[in-house]
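call fold(seq) -> tokens
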Amino acid sequence: MTDTDNTIDVAICGAGPVGMALAALLARRGMAGSRIALIDAKSLSAAISDPRSIALSYGSRMLLEEIGAWPIPATAIHDIHISRRGHFGRSMIERSEHDVPALGYVTRYGELVTALSGACERAGITVVRPARVTGHLEHTDGVSLQLDDGSVLDAALVVQAEGGVFGEQDNKALTRDYRQTAVIARVSTSTPIAHRAYERFTDEGPLALLPQDGSDGKQYALVWCVRPETAEQLLQLDDAAFLARLGDAFGTRLGRFTATSSRASYKLGLNANPAATARTVAIGNAAQTLHPVAGQGLNLGLRDAAVLARLLGQGATPEQLAEFTDARQADRRITVGLTDAMARAFAGTGPAQALLGLSLGVFDTVAPARALLAELMMFGRR
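ret:
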């Protein structure tokens, strides 16, 4: 280690939304911006140009407001329609039942990064990008990070906020291959319903449509989870054939699907491994990657950042990291369990699916159950 005067308090590896939110929150909690370092392999311009759609919960909006990263261009979700294809029964979660302006919001990754980058800049946070961490050495009093330009950055604590982890593999890590691939695109419909999101369970996996205003005011962000071989077929179809397949899977609640953007895909799996050592900890995607059903991955990561910032604001010490691990167990366990159960329970065929479809209708009549699910989706386990 170098002289402690040159050692920063917290190095955050990964300047995605979760890493930047943590940095801005640490500054908000009183840590000097010059004592916080953000390290990322991407240039800021590359991150800002990312067109992916992301879902933010109402709780995440509150966090962004606190650090001056809200408002941003986003479409509000007022209600969520949940159904099972081919079976009776559906459930509706509505903002009017929960005294909030929206259940959540749909925005583009680049819009969120732009806002968070501005918050970090105003806080005077040190940003090192593009740069990769090629190695690390943990000492009793800190961690030395080796960067790809040959330099060394010394920190009291290191937070892995994206990608791999520094800590040892947790023997209780939960991994799962869903044998599903998510096909993503932006699509337009002939008769949209403003501010309504859909979660439609099919034999191969969930199909989500999230309202996202485009130039025609009729656009949705599509996340369609299917078997890998089906995903390959969908990617090869021309636009007309793709829209026809989508209409068959979703139904006619929004009229006809009239246009689609280019499509992309990514493999789905569960990897919940919140690895940690005395001076390193993983949050966000480095701690858990979830199935996209219910859109909880980023929001769970932002809750990680909020709790960690609160604790490290009391001191950048191993004791605070240990307390963080304990404090996040319940929310992580419930959110991971909920998304995993939903992804697996509604995929498949057979008589059980009819019962599951009917269960949505029963669920819709039980106000306390709907309220609990909405609370978990907006704020996590508090």
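The first helix runs from residue 17 to 28.
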